[in-house]
């Protein structure tokens, strides 16, 4: 069954009040039911998604600074649990694993024994999912879970995932989800969404259910309803967030503009700094390209067919009987942007970018997708 059939409610229902430690009650609730709790945590000076067990594992009092090609953590003096934006990881790595054994062939007593995909049965509680990331998951739902051919591993993992989202109060330096219409407030696609309020000496969350399961959790754990003042305080913070974006881009007609400028020399200019490293595709929460490889052990006893994330920035990715169809870096860069912002719409009815800004932060030379779009618009305005 397609994951698109999951029924999420749009923002409705009452708001609950949670003290910071109440998040642990939610973690325990899911742990006792066999879920892995996956959330943001600090590893090697970056905020990544990993297994956590307590609110103390969150990046408490940690913020981040992001600009093209730059990422660094900084201390905050307010003890915020979610005072940073997205890092190098996305939830894709848990729903669509970077490496997956599709099947294994093993010699046994003169016969060949085939074992099918080894994917474990796992249930996830995702903690701190941002609005842009929910949109990215919904895009993957369409790509991997919709249509005639679906990815059974993705569907199984997705159906066993509970999304505890958090609204963004402070967009980062490379965030532009307001321009893509995918944030900063989560409107749908979550089971529970939190808003973090830190005001004077108060620190609390408001929580709203977005699914029946989310509603059951909030009711079963006995949280009280938020007071009118608490609702107002949270709403004020959320309504101010859109004004804090420093990066904006007008995406009107971007699909048509790119498609009608396939041979424009501007592509060479934009791509001349590109190293073809593929970082942008690895960190992007919606990129789904992969390669399939066969590997054998040295004794010839075991062979495995493996699915591994790949990138349209590698020459081999477009290899077709005798050669690659995208030898130049420019052609690979153009393919990526054209797909994200244009032909994706033809395939899936939406663009493939949610404005998370990861590709801008993690590009070693700081190439900025929003500046690329602006350059095309400027050139066309002058014609
Ligand atoms: S293209 Fe860049 S900004 Fe858009 S979703 Fe991917 S990583 Fe985020
Ligand atoms: S745009 Fe940046 S991150 Fe992407 S392949 Fe080129 S150099 Fe690497």
From TrEMBL:
Gene3D superfamilies: Alpha-helical ferredoxin. It comes from Candidatus Thermokryptus mobilis. InterPro entries: 4Fe4S_Fe-S-bd, 4Fe4S_Fe_S_CS, Helical_ferredxn. GO terms for molecular function: iron-sulfur cluster binding; metal ion binding. It comes from the Bacteria. Residues 263-295, 344-372 form the 4Fe-4S ferredoxin-type domain. Keywords: Iron, Iron-sulfur, Metal-binding. PANTHER family: ANAEROBIC SULFITE REDUCTASE SUBUNIT A. This is 4Fe-4S dicluster domain-containing protein. The lineage of its organism: Bacteria, Pseudomonadati, Candidatus Kryptoniota, Candidatus Thermokryptus.
